[in-house]
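Minutes, project check-in
Item: structure for the 475-residue chain
Input as provided by the requester:
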Amino acid sequence: MLELPDELRNEMWQKVRRAIEEYSRELEHLRVAPPSDPRPVRRLLEDVDFSRPMSVGEALDRVLEGLRHHQVHNGHPRYFGLFNPATSTMSVAADALAAAFNPQLAAWTHAPFACEVERLLIRELGVKFGYPRELVGGSFTTGGAEANHTALLMALVRHFPRFVEDGVRSLPAQPTLYVSSESHHSFSKAARLCGLGTSAVRQVEVDESFVMDPEALRALVRDDRKAGRHPLFAVATLGTTGAGLVDPVDAIAHVGHEEGLWVHADAAWGGAAILVPELRPLLQGVERADSITFDAHKWLAVPMGAGMFFTRHPELLEEVFGVVAGYMPRAGEGIDVREPHRSSMQWTRRFIGLKLFLTLLVAGFDGYATMIREMVRLGDVLRERLTDGGWDIVNRTRLPVVCFCDRRAPGTEAVRAISDAVVESGDAWTSVTLVGGRIPALRACVTNFHTREIDLDFLLRCLSEARRRVLESIS
C-alpha cells in the first residue's frame, strides 16, 4: 500500500484535488478558528489503530475533517492575525511537485536544477535588497529563526576565527548582541544555541515611536566594551512582529560598522516592501547590512516554511558550514557550483524554493507589488475606520499592521477579553500585543490577498460587539 495501484491512485488524486478546490471555494464561509476545546479533536483520533489500516478513502476523509474543522484558517479573508498568508495556487502545486519528485538538495550533483533555481532566487532577491549581484550569497532556510541563527554564527566566525574549531572556549570575552524590545525572540534562542546564553542579548532603548535609537545603541556598545564584553552583533528589525515597526537600518548600520559590529537586518516580514517602489524608502540602508533574513512564507503567499538568508560575505559561508565528508558526491573539478551542505546549516532538505519560483514565473515581481500595495491600502482603510469607530491607534507604521485600543477598556485583561470574544465567535481572528513592551493593544494585520473592504467592515462589527460586552462587564 505504499505504492497504490493505478486505479486507486487516480481515485485518491481526484479526491485530493476535489478537496483542495472545495476548500478554496468554501473557505470564507468556514469559522476562522475552531472552538478552544480539545475533546472533538481527540474523539476524531481515539479509534485510530495503526495495527488495523484504513482504506484510502477513509484515511483521507479523517484527515480532511480534521483540517477543515480543527485549525485556524489563516487563508481566510477575515484572518487578521500573524504573518501567515493565504497561499498562491502555483505555490500549492509547487509543494506537491517537490514532494513527488523529492529532489535532495544536499549535493549539487543530485539536484542541479533545484540548486540552480534556489541560487537564482537568492541572487535576484539579494539584488532587490540592494546587494551587488557579484556579492550576493545565502540559502533557503526552514524559516527566519534558522536565518537569524545563521547570521549570528557568521558574526562569531568573522570576529573569532577559532570559533569553528574550538567553540566558546576560544572566546576571549563575552560576545554581546544588540536588539530592540520589539525584536523577534529567535535571537534569544540563537544565543542559547551558539553557547552564548541569553544574558548576551542586550536590549537597546527605543524612541517615542518604539524603534531602536541608534545613539542608544552606540552608548550601550561602548559601556559594554568598557565592562570587558565583546560587542558583536546588532539587529535592525524591518517590520516587527507585534506592531510592524521598522528600525532605522541605515543609521544602525552606520553606528554598527563604526563600532566594529556585524549588522543584521531581520526583514522576515517587512522585507517584501522592497518590491514596491513607493515603500522601498522604508528600508533605506538595508543594503549596508552584513546579512538579511527574509521569509517568503510571510508576505509572498507561499506555504510554510520558506525562509531565506542573504549575506554580502559569501566567502564566509563555507568557512562557517564547510565540512569534508567522503560519502558526499562532488561536482567535477573546475565546475563553478556551491554545495548546499557546505554553505548552509541544513544537510538533507527538500526543494524549498520551488514554491516561490513557480509563483514568480506566473505573477512576476510586478504581481507581488500589486498585491502588497493593495494590502497596504487596506491597512490604511482599517486605521481610518477604527478611528471613526472610537478606537485609538497606538502604533505608527506604513505597513499594514494596526495596533489599537479603547481608553474606556484599558489594561491587558480588557484587551484580551475583546480579542478572545472576536476569535471565539469564529467570524474573524485578531491577536493582542504589548506595543513598546508596555501598551496593551489589539492587533490586526492585513497579510492575505483574499481580504477586501467588506471583510474590514465585518471585523469592525465583531470588534464593536465584543467591546460593548466588555464595557458592560466593567461598568
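Outcome recorded: Residues 44 and 65 are 9 Å apart (CA to CA).
No further action items on this chain.
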